[in-house]
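Ticket #345: bound-state structure for manganese (II) ion.
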Amino acid sequence: MQQQLIELKPLLDSPKKIVITTHHKPDADALGSSLALARFLKKLKHEVQVIVPSDYPSFLDWMSGNDSVWIYNEGKEEQSALYIEAADIIFCLDFNALGRINELGALVGKSPAIKVLVDHHLEPQDFADISISDIKAAATGVLIYELIIGLNGRDLMDTYIAECIYAGIMTDTGSFRHSNTDKKVHQIIADLYSWNLDSSRVHRLIFDTNSEERLRLLGFCLSEKLVVLADCYTAFMYLSAEELKRFDARTGDTEGLVNYALSIDKVVLAAMIIEREDGVKISFRSKGDFNVNEFARTHFEGGGHKNASGGRSLKSLSETVRNFREIVSTYKEELLENLRKEKFL
Ligand code: 5GP
Ligand code: MN
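RESOLUTION: The complex was predicted; output attached.
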């Protein structure tokens, strides 16, 4: 990151018009990183606008700066286009390809602004002028922390920035459970307490704010919609648009459900298949060395990380489910191999 910061630093020496954007349906790392960076840059006297492609879960609405976020497809199309066109710098956080920000991708692509990528997804597209892409980073929040510290910003850190960064690192590591959890993660978290971080509060705000409907939806998924393909070491759940409506599902309500499928003993690959307005969206999770980034890329026009990725299908829900089952059956041996490795190192 050293070299990139040398290039970035002089750009931030005088007040700039800055856009910060992040991926479709921002999660805690996407939004937390964006709002942490926005708050830091505002303290440096820049004019900053966070623009996201779509709405995000209500369990993120406590983050400092949430009220000023523009949600592109909720009436901010024109304003966003003008702002992006006139911007000096555009920070692209927590995504690796312009296609991940929907229509914003074209606007960002044609803007004369200097583009700065800060991301940890595999196989980043080459669209940025300054690229801080570290696939080993547990979260984009880690990189934002390092960027702020690297720009001598310790004195500008505060509780609000610390809790946004914490939220991203906590969720992207599955509450410090996933294999991306390492020494650096814990060292950064330890340092975040320097700014009076209340980590338990952040945890409660994100995980203990379920609606009753969301919990009922979870119950329905577990009792009615869980399919275990024991001979393929795979489990998945699927939901139709009608079922989402029946449970009054809001953005974010299906997040994390896939982990219940993955939590089953001897399951190496898990999927959550959901019928959305614009097609079928799939979340993949895996244990150990089974690479769901590659799996999503090869079969479902997606990508992400080795153990957590996503993709889509333009087939119907039932066709997608059938297709998924067929594909998985061709991975039987590989999945078994990974299970063996996982159990007996
Ligand atoms: P989730 O399943 O939680 O939506 O996503 C898991 C991970 O995969 C996240 O890091 C997310 O950014 C990434 N991801 C999800 N969907 C897609 C997709 O369609 N394309 C790519 N490239 N990455 C995705
Ligand atoms: Mn992330």
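RESOLUTION NOTES: The first helix runs from residue 2 to 11.
TICKET STATUS: resolved
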